[in-house]
Amino acid sequence: MAKKKVIAQIYGDWEESHNKVPRLLQALQSCCLGTMCEISIAPYYDGHLMVRDYSIFDKVFWAFPPCVKAFKDHKPFVSVDGTHLYEKYGGVLLIAVAQDGNSNILFIAFAIVESKTMES
Q1: What confidence category does residue 100 fall into, taking pLDDT thresholds of 50, 70 and 90?
Q2: For the CA atoms of the chain, what is the radius of gyration?
Q3: What is the pTM of this model?
Q4: Which of 10, 29, 102, 112 has its CA 20 to 30 A from that of 40?
């Protein structure tokens, strides 16, 4: 319990972190010109009631320009792997990877989604 309180003091709580996602994506696009980002916003529900004028992100996707540029020279095999995110919001962090001509791993794109499905 103490560890969670200290982490919240240093990094902020879950709601605060999730509300910073759109600003983080804007900063990525400002610093790394050409960064592709897509965010899906969902209404926030407190139990069964929708909270007006409040939303949280549902899904997010981003890819960096060097990765996109290098993608044209990758081997014809792309893998998508995911790792589960725990705590309050959960979800899955998906990473699309390929190999370049020198057999180095090439990260193509990243996404945070609800679950690892074909739709995601």
Answers
A1: confident
A2: 17
A3: 0.70
A4: 10
